[in-house]
Write a structure and sequence with these properties.
The chain has 317 residues and is an alpha/beta fold. It has eight helices and 16 strands.
């Protein structure tokens, strides 16, 4: 096994301990401040880090798109990440993060890359409601230390949707999704930390006329599942009489989707409830690990028809 494969294998195995690796970078001075804040992205989303190559400026490109770069024969759009976040890169944009997620490849121009840190998901807290519209969570880089450094984990799904809005006709495609009949009294319990992902999931489930409960983290979904189990027991029912299926993202603060799935499948109350992983983290390594924690299916973000077909297939097994 070569070093690259060993690195991938080691990072994949981190999920068994509710851990992951975060690549830290800076974008320049924050709006209204002289501070150069730390930002982070899951290492699994980063294909490579490189010195800024030559960029070809495209006519009529979106304002935040610097152009395209020819990287190993592939034309990849380059997004000015400081421009998206409102930061001022006083030291220039010298580094490119080439990323792969949600079925797309794109590059983010950043001021500098700092380091890779290994974290437990419990040290990543939801940022929703704290005023950061493009930030899903805040990572405490030094754990529970009183003066821990903080890094903002960007909502890359929201950023891509803002930079490359879907064409108007795509917004109405979901209306053609076939209806799905769940067992009476049951719902789909869904969890995702990205506001734009939740919006798209909710729209798809509504178009399928499926009742659902939406959670913002794996921990919230786990708490809701346990509460529903208690409610079911008082009615002489099982948890599966309340929850037909769990749909979960992988990357979430407090508790990730791997841990949520493992908790469900190792608990006698819930193990018969099917779990579908719905994630922007694609690739055989992730899909293989999804199977190892007991998930019933994996579907990459975000094609509404594929998500609907996967849910239907799992529920009719």
């Amino acid at each position: 096994m070569n070093q690259a494969m060993r690195d991938i294998d080691e990072r994949t195995n981190l999920t068994g301990n509710s851990m992951f690796e975060l690549l830290l970078f800076r974008l320049g001075q924050a709006p209204g401040s002289q501070r150069r804040e730390l930002f982070g992205i899951n290492v699994f989303k980063v294909r490579e880090i490189m010195v800024m190559p030559e960029i070809t400026v495209m006519v009529n490109a979106p304002p935040a798109v610097m152009g395209v770069a020819n990287i190993r024969g592939q034309m990849i759009p380059v997004i000015n990440l400081p421009a998206v976040t409102g930061c001022n890169p006083t030291q220039g944009l010298g580094i490119l993060l080439v990323t792969e997620f949600a079925r797309t490849t794109q590059a983010f121009a950043v001021e500098e890359v700092n380091e890779i840190v290994r974290l437990e998901w419990k040290h990543v807290l939801s940022a929703e409601g704290n005023g950061g519209g493009l930030v899903t969570s805040i990572a405490r880089l030094d754990g529970n230390a009183e003066n821990t450094r903080l890094a903002q984990v960007l909502d890359v799904e929201q950023i891509l949707r803002d930079v490359f809005p879907p064409p108007p006709q795509a917004l109405n495609d979901d209306a053609m999704l076939p209806k799905l009949q769940l067992p009476p009294g049951t719902v789909i319990l869904a969890a995702d930390d990205s506001a734009v992902a939740r919006m798209m999931i909710e729209q798809g489930l509504k178009d399928m006329e499926v009742p659902y409960i939406m959670a913002k983290t794996g921990q919230e979904a786990w708490d809701r599942l346990q509460a529903l189990s208690v409610q079911a027991a008082t009615e002489g029912k099982t948890a599966q009489d309340k929850v037909a299926l769990v749909l979960t993202d992988l990357e979430m603060p407090e508790m990730d989707g791997f841990t949520l799935t493992r908790n469900i499948k190792q608990d006698v109350r819930f193990r018969s409830i099917p779990v579908v992983i719905h994630s922007s983290l694609t690739g055989s390594a992730n899909e293989g690990h999804v199977k190892s924690v007991g998930a019933d299916a994996y579907v990459a973000k975000f094609v509404a028809e594929e998500l609907a077909a996967t849910i239907r297939q799992v529920l009719t097994r």
